[in-house]
Amino acid sequence: MFRVAIAVIGGLMIWGCSKAPYAEANKSYKKQAKAYSKELRQDPTKTDSGLMLAPEWVGTTNFNMRKPNFVIIHHTAQNSCDQTLKTFTLTRTAVSAHYVICRDGVIHHMLNDYLRAWHGGISKWGNTTDINSTSIGIELDNNGFEYFSEAQINSLMQLLATLKKRHGIPTANFIGHGDIAPTRKNDPNWRFPWKQLADKGFGNWYADTTNVTVPESFDHLQALRIVGFDMKDTTSAIVAFKRHWLQDTTRGLNLDQKKVLYQLMKKYY
To answer: Which of 24, 39, 56, 139 is labelled catalytic?
Structure first.
């Protein structure tokens, strides 16, 4: 009987722990948020030591929160939501995202939209070089070699609609990690349904190319730059463009593909 009682108690302890597996991570989140909140409430002049400040502080009445202007979509390159959640709650990994969407469509909102997640890394889009400071990162539970589930995409669509309305994010600014870091990343993989998103206003798409004639003066590298790609590595930029808009991962551009780029470029003028 004693052994049975010990087994029951042990089982209850395990169950109790499993009910809140991220209690420590949540505690850390709240602690950091409280520290930032305290900093925001400070008289701003307290951090301006060494400057010739006016004797009396006058605080403006006209301000609001800085808001995100981009949404960056990723695949997790891991094998389960649990694995990703653990990765994002370990300090040593130094990576995070605002949202994680599991294969069954369940959404984990891990970080306030107004706070800076660590998801973009070294990246660039247009003239923006600190993507993390201007974006919301969304991770889709996908190992990088599989299609995305219908439930997952449906949840993503609902989330994107909410974010676009909440923050006024421009249509063109829904892009992928592989777009902003073409030499390092390929996510979301080529199976991602970008056109389905674009049809709902989340990202630009190209017009029909059936009767399009590409001008002789057309510079495809300049066109890629206009779209937003970092052109330090032109081969990687071309592959990233084709992965996103053509679901193609090969190198080089043929005439039909240049027609697509030509039509797409016009969306960014």
So the answer is: 139
